[in-house]
Amino acid sequence: xxxxxxxxxxDFSRNGHLERIVAAAKADxxxxxxxxxxxxxxxxxxxxxxxxxxxxxxxxKLAPARLTPTIAELADDLVSRMFGICPPEMxxxxxxxxxxxxxxxxxxxx
Length: 110
Fold this sequence. Notes:
single chain; mainly alpha; 5 helices; globular; disordered N terminus
């Protein structure tokens, strides 16, 4: 993994950091399996509690806490290993990128 010691908000999307983080997550099979489990849990909760898709934000708030470690903990661990300190607002972006990538990958499998 990279030896960058600080992840700056300014450089985050321009320098390909997000792509590197997602690629590193996918390269670690056990880690990536946990991310996909979190996304599958979110999809299952949406299907059961909100089949019309009207209240997605409420479902998304419930789903991550059901499995441990949470997606927030996974994202924090991954970013910390790669870049050291990461601002909390960046972790939200990383979490969403991981879940979006897992969602796409899972939809291809179906």
